[in-house]
Amino acid sequence: MEETRRVLVADDDPAILDLLTFNLKAEGFDVLAATDGDQAWSLARHAVPDLVVLDVMMPQRDGLDVLGSLKSHPRTRHIPVVLLTAKASDAEVWEGWRAGADYYITKPFSLDELLHFVEYLLRPASTTV
Known about the structure:
By secondary structure, this protein is α/β, with parallel strands linked by helices. Helices cover 43% and strands 18% of the residues. Strands 2-1-3-4-5 form a five-stranded parallel beta sheet, sandwiched between helices. Helix 4 links the parallel strand 4 (81-85) and strand 5 (103-106).
């Protein structure tokens, strides 16, 4: 029997957080929700999700700071991270990639695109090309 995969979603916009939580649960994921960077980092450290969807502009700690912490901590460095943000300039996107993002999606976003890349990033290594 396949183990339920856990996704942490962090966004300070309640509508986006609800949309992502609802749709990821509908796809069979166990979803943890955070409304700020501190909460996201705490949940990631303690629950060690299989993937994180992280807004960049959040209260407490911004997403890039959380991403840096995730990638530098032994318990969380392996977790794929999707940045989901309104920051869309080339420099901002490049900053996200340099910080260690596995994928970068700008708002407004396609829910289908996000769900596709969540599935892609969680695919077992033996099935990737």
